[in-house]
Amino acid sequence: MQKKERFRRFIEYFTEHFPEPQTELNFSNPYELLVAVILSAQCTDKRINQITPALFARFPEPESLAAASADEIFTYIRSVSYPNNKARHLAGMGRMLMERFGGEVPGSLEELQQLPGVGRKTANVILSIVYNLPTMAVDTHVFRVSHRLGLAPLTATTPLAVEKALMAYIPKQHVPRAHHWLILHGRYICLARSPKCDACPLKDFCKYYEKLTGKARVSVM
Ligand code: SF4
């Protein structure tokens, strides 16, 4: 099957069945989303949603976060992965938001990536959700599912290469939703170790499944 056809069927399926996918992180403004996405690296959204109510109550805006010490922030996030690093990042991020961006979450990739704890993936999430821009954040689910479906070539071995491969074929108006579609599919169906292929609605055009049923030897990405 041609790659273009795989993309067409991928978009067609999700547009029909999940027209309005959302992030599973709880937030009520761009600042809260930024904090939640920084915390969610190497951690589950469920865990982040458990700790953010108290965190947001204590630090409801960048100003209070900027005035806090990393030690105090740590006490609110101790149950997430890498709490020491993330506490330092949040303290620095709050200060930079106040000192350089007037307390507002900036709206460009370059500016966002200046913030402590914010890499390309986090910046792309913010641009997509807050600013509704056609950016593709590639996390572990997007990376894996894109390869298995055959949307990204096996030669795309970095998140940036996968991002470029996806952006080359997904029409701009679908990009923000496609990010969520790939994440949710990876989280609930196309699991890393045991993909639920028999129950997967995408198996008719999945490259991994084609090889699997053709008895070809495949590696799980
Ligand atoms: S058929 Fe299997 S490998 Fe392909 S997308 Fe579905 S769960 Fe993933």
Automatic annotation (TrEMBL):
<dbReference type="GO" id="GO:0019104">
    <property type="term" value="F:DNA N-glycosylase activity"/>
</dbReference>
<feature type="binding site">
    <location>
        <position position="206"/>
    </location>
    <ligand>
        <name>[4Fe-4S] cluster</name>
    </ligand>
</feature>
<dbReference type="GO" id="GO:0051539">
    <property type="term" value="F:4 iron, 4 sulfur cluster binding"/>
</dbReference>
<dbReference type="InterPro" id="IPR000445">
    <property type="entry name" value="HhH_motif"/>
</dbReference>
<feature type="domain" description="Helix-hairpin-helix DNA-binding motif class 1">
    <location>
        <begin position="110"/>
        <end position="129"/>
    </location>
</feature>
<keyword id="KW-0234">DNA repair</keyword>
<comment type="function">
    <text>DNA repair enzyme that has both DNA N-glycosylase activity and AP-lyase activity. The DNA N-glycosylase activity releases various damaged pyrimidines from DNA by cleaving the N-glycosidic bond, leaving an AP (apurinic/apyrimidinic) site. The AP-lyase activity cleaves the phosphodiester bond 3' to the AP site by a beta-elimination, leaving a 3'-terminal unsaturated sugar and a product with a terminal 5'-phosphate.</text>
</comment>
<keyword id="KW-0540">Nuclease</keyword>
<dbReference type="Pfam" id="PF00730">
    <property type="entry name" value="HhH-GPD"/>
</dbReference>
<keyword id="KW-0326">Glycosidase</keyword>
<dbReference type="InterPro" id="IPR003583">
    <property type="entry name" value="Hlx-hairpin-Hlx_DNA-bd_motif"/>
</dbReference>
<feature type="binding site">
    <location>
        <position position="197"/>
    </location>
    <ligand>
        <name>[4Fe-4S] cluster</name>
    </ligand>
</feature>
<dbReference type="GO" id="GO:0046872">
    <property type="term" value="F:metal ion binding"/>
</dbReference>
<dbReference type="InterPro" id="IPR003265">
    <property type="entry name" value="HhH-GPD_domain"/>
</dbReference>
<keyword id="KW-0456">Lyase</keyword>
<protein>
    <recommendedName>
        <fullName>Endonuclease III</fullName>
        <ecNumber>4.2.99.18</ecNumber>
    </recommendedName>
</protein>
<keyword id="KW-0238">DNA-binding</keyword>
<keyword id="KW-0408">Iron</keyword>
<keyword id="KW-0378">Hydrolase</keyword>
<dbReference type="InterPro" id="IPR004036">
    <property type="entry name" value="Endonuclease-III-like_CS2"/>
</dbReference>
<keyword id="KW-0004">4Fe-4S</keyword>
<dbReference type="InterPro" id="IPR005759">
    <property type="entry name" value="Nth"/>
</dbReference>
<keyword id="KW-0479">Metal-binding</keyword>
<dbReference type="GO" id="GO:0003677">
    <property type="term" value="F:DNA binding"/>
</dbReference>
<dbReference type="GO" id="GO:0006285">
    <property type="term" value="P:base-excision repair, AP site formation"/>
</dbReference>
<keyword id="KW-0411">Iron-sulfur</keyword>
<dbReference type="InterPro" id="IPR011257">
    <property type="entry name" value="DNA_glycosylase"/>
</dbReference>
<dbReference type="InterPro" id="IPR023170">
    <property type="entry name" value="HhH_base_excis_C"/>
</dbReference>
<dbReference type="InterPro" id="IPR004035">
    <property type="entry name" value="Endouclease-III_FeS-bd_BS"/>
</dbReference>
<feature type="binding site">
    <location>
        <position position="190"/>
    </location>
    <ligand>
        <name>[4Fe-4S] cluster</name>
    </ligand>
</feature>
<feature type="binding site">
    <location>
        <position position="200"/>
    </location>
    <ligand>
        <name>[4Fe-4S] cluster</name>
    </ligand>
</feature>
<comment type="similarity">
    <text>Belongs to the Nth/MutY family.</text>
</comment>
<dbReference type="GO" id="GO:0140078">
    <property type="term" value="F:class I DNA-(apurinic or apyrimidinic site) endonuclease activity"/>
</dbReference>
<keyword id="KW-0255">Endonuclease</keyword>
<dbReference type="InterPro" id="IPR003651">
    <property type="entry name" value="Endonuclease3_FeS-loop_motif"/>
</dbReference>
<feature type="domain" description="HhH-GPD">
    <location>
        <begin position="39"/>
        <end position="188"/>
    </location>
</feature>
<keyword id="KW-0227">DNA damage</keyword>
<dbReference type="Pfam" id="PF00633">
    <property type="entry name" value="HHH"/>
</dbReference>
<dbReference type="Pfam" id="PF10576">
    <property type="entry name" value="EndIII_4Fe-2S"/>
</dbReference>
